[in-house]
Amino acid sequence: MKLRTSYVAILAAATSLVAGAAQAECERGTLDAMYCDADGDLIADIPTDASKQMDPSTLVFAYTPVEDPAVYKEAWADFLSYLEEKTGKKVVFFPVQSNAAQIEAMRSGRLHIAGFNTGSNPLAVNCAGFRPFTIMAGADGSFGYEMEILTYPGSGIEAVEDIKGKQLAFTSPTSNSGFKAPSAILKADYDMIPERDFEPVYSGKHDNSILGVANKDYQAASIANSVLARMISRDVVKEDQLVSLYKSQTFPTTGYGVAYNLTPELQANIQDAFFSFNWEGSSLEEEFGKNGEAQFIPITYQEHWDVIRKIDSANDVSYACK
């Protein structure tokens, strides 16, 4: 397969493009001062100085924060074993508790491979040197999810406008479907702003928001329906506990990638593992197949996260690192 055989050549070429760039004086766009972007693809270049490249004996992998990390540690088990075979290194699963903690772990060099959720991808790219290259997709190559605003039967909320004067649960400020997309849509389409028109609360995770609505702890919540589909398939919640008030356009799902300063050869081997992994009968298929995913496909941050950056711009989101 061409995708599998060209990674080293592509990464080596990308590295050579920035050979003359000094770290202190280089093109970087919105990237933090730690990184360079001489090739203009909006992600951090691999350091040209070999002494600044990492080749750790143990690789740390983290999936986006979820309600029950143990479920996803098991779901990723077969893939991580395959990743060990492809890289010749030990791989450990790191359960993260928040988007901020995940970003900080990669920025500090403690996290090497990760899946960052849709909304936190830009911050991870700009502040942690994250280089996303793939997302999950269906067998036909289709991918994505929608943001939905949910309530429960009998809540007294029949339409989005009815949220005025009531409560709406978000997940966290870095989440696309859990905060940024609904904030932009509510402001643009309904002239509704948090604090002024409704009470915003934060659940921390999509799972929490969905369970909160199903158990009537929250009157309404904005969530990613890919998470909802998996929770329904596991009988964590039932469809008749929830009512959908709004569904958005389709957004890219969790983006998977690596820390910018892993060696080009290691980055190539990691990419090869993602694209050559056989889903059939695997623990990944058992969990994510419930939502229709069946493979990893190539993406670029520059193209596939364009709509997310536009939503961030509408919300005046800054990618400055704190």
UniProtKB/TrEMBL annotation:
Question: What is one process in the GO biological process aspect for this record?
Answer: transmembrane transport
InterPro entries associated with the record: PhnD, Solute-binding_3/MltF_N
Position of the signal peptide: 1-24
Q: Taking every annotated instance into account, which residue ranges of this chain make up the domain Solute-binding protein family 3/N-terminal?
A: 58-291
Q: Name one Pfam family in it.
A: Phosphonate-bd
Q: Which GO terms describe its cellular component?
A: ATP-binding cassette (ABC) transporter complex
What are the entry keywords? Signal
Specify the superkingdom: Bacteria
Membership in a protein family: Belongs to the phosphate/phosphite/phosphonate binding protein family.
What NCBIfam families does the annotation carry?
Answer: 3A0109s03R (TIGR01098)
Protein name as catalogued: Phosphate-import protein PhnD
**Naturally occurring in which organism (per UniProt):** Thalassovita autumnalis
